[in-house]
Amino acid sequence: QVQLVESGGGLVQAGGSLRLSCDASRILFSINAMGWYRQAPGKQRDLVAAIKRGGSTNYADSVKGRFTISRDTFKNAVYLQMNSLKPEDTAVYYCNVDTVSVDYWGQGTQVTVSS
Q: CA 71, CA 94: separation in Å to the nearest integer?
């Protein structure tokens, strides 16, 4: 049974934009942080962006200034607005939700950026 539902991935040309969504409405526990990770073929899964309970955000250097993470605390949803996409951004993107006791992962959504 899935706790997180991801959407918004797809194929775009370099310079284009995508908006990823993660629906965490099924999670009723207290959430400490929400974030997005990505994993390219043959590489490790790396943090892209995170937002803490208090609203502070962290970004990987490679996406800073291009990506924006946001959340809807009432709906328990987290979003990733991706602008000025580059081929290097091509990866499977995973939603992550850190609760008081359990770390949840989405099943991933493919983002492909063509040259």
A: 15
